């Protein structure tokens, strides 16, 4: 019984951590490339969820089957949010590329507030029901009440995404260009890498992942509103710092550690202290490993 | 030394006053004196004046029928501006005029400061609007009654429903850490403990806006709770209910009027089915309420204001109790208030041992076929 409880908490923590990871990767990649903390990133997650909601409702009305709705809604939400990420970079950060470091940071906060209010006005401030796009089915008896199909889908999707991202960065041309840009932007430019394009692609990839996270969690939780990006964004940012901002495996590990910490704190102590434990962990890590769990010297990023 | 002197003085004053009222009662049997106290001027007058109007209407109607116990009812109105320090003067003035019962005061603070004076003189006091739970629950004021549900009434109803109607034994009490939700959850926890029939197996606050609540939901399961009482608003409630139902936890979910909201049903969808929530009782269909409001419109030419129906009901309950008691004797009226039901615009009511109206305030609702239905 106690082992079962432990596993339930662990899986809950990993599920939550997976969502954080999908968002945290965007923070960490953008930071790795241009040393900017993109505070509007949480809003991309929220916009991804809203887009999927609208698309899913339209598709369901058109009478498409469940799996088609899930796939189409996810793909469209991801593309649409990627476009948002691309545009945000062009509007809010590119003009400030050579400005003092504080300026793009303030621009990012402004963007975050703008997007929240834009969705608030364009949609509603109420919570909206989100259809459970992930089909619900039961596993065999001992497993079925430890993990649900939605949690399984979230875990698997995140794992697959991580592998794909690693492959992309390690073995493709654009991945090489990204790593080069992260190491030294002016040097990369000198050897003929289109740095602006690399930055745009980084934003597109980060936004796509955040949107994917948004769709998955909204489908799991069943409700969204314009404010969900804020808290999720803060938590994912915390996870990125925990793992070592700028490091991709660090963001994943940081997210899973954070998710599990919250889950165990709730399960074994009290949910009153969920955030207390999460941020106490952050403080401890930063005291003993100022660059985060996997953070290394600042020259090796992405 | 000063303290003892003060006590001595107080005792003298009280005994002097008692002699006065006692003698007052002896030669004052020609009318029934009905005091009304509350804010009748100042910035809170809009809360107090409807009570005066309600008392006027009820007393006029009673006198038109030949009065109560064959005597005319006399209305004595005193202003307390909703200030505790003024309220003591108001109370002293009304008692010196020999009132038999008092309708008021309006604000909880003013009510509390005035109650001691009425208590010493054994005068029944009934407020249409003071919701502070301690006024009745502390047991300090056996002379106090009210026709409005106290702040903790919802928690009381939830616990009562969970234990006595649903027969639950192990309750998980959750809240959203906010003033409203946590306040209710604390009351619920206390009532469960005091009742002794069930136990609180889990008491926790969830973080509003957290990504998911699966750990809390697992905790509910692990605690082997057979019911959940949640204090807070609908976004958290729907998240918890949905995750519970998805984890196949089918135990009852009972919440408050922060959840008795159509958005809850819209968001939680099929998972909302069967959820219980307390909400203000719907009395707009009550013919007495309609008649009272119509009467106010014809007499004063406008809509009645705040707490009008509560005051109207209180006035009816007081006069009814005097009629049933057959005298203006304190003990007889107290007994009548607690035992005799009376038809009022708020429904059929009587008072419990603490002085809170039974049959007033909140009802339990349940989601059935995508709508909240009042449980009778």
TrEMBL record, chain A:
The keyword Nucleotide-binding does not apply. Keywords: Amino-acid transport, Cell inner membrane, Cell membrane, Membrane, Transmembrane, Transmembrane helix, Transport. One of its GO terms (cellular component) is plasma membrane. The chain crosses the membrane at residues 20-37, 44-64, 70-93, 105-123, 143-169, 195-218, 276-295. GO terms for biological process: D-alanine transmembrane transport; L-alanine transport; L-isoleucine import across plasma membrane. GO terms for molecular function: L-isoleucine transmembrane transporter activity; L-leucine transmembrane transporter activity; L-phenylalanine transmembrane transporter activity; L-valine transmembrane transporter activity. Its main location: membrane. The keyword Transmembrane applies. It is a multi-pass membrane protein. It is found in: Cell membrane. InterPro entries: ABC_transp_permease, BCAA_transport_permease. Coiled coil: none annotated. PANTHER family: BRANCHED-CHAIN AMINO ACID TRANSPORT SYSTEM PERMEASE PROTEIN LIVH (PTHR11795), HIGH-AFFINITY BRANCHED-CHAIN AMINO ACID TRANSPORT SYSTEM PERMEASE PROTEIN LIVH (PTHR11795:SF371). Belongs to the binding-protein-dependent transport system permease family. LivHM subfamily. This is Branched-chain amino acid ABC transporter permea se. It comes from Desulfonema ishimotonii.
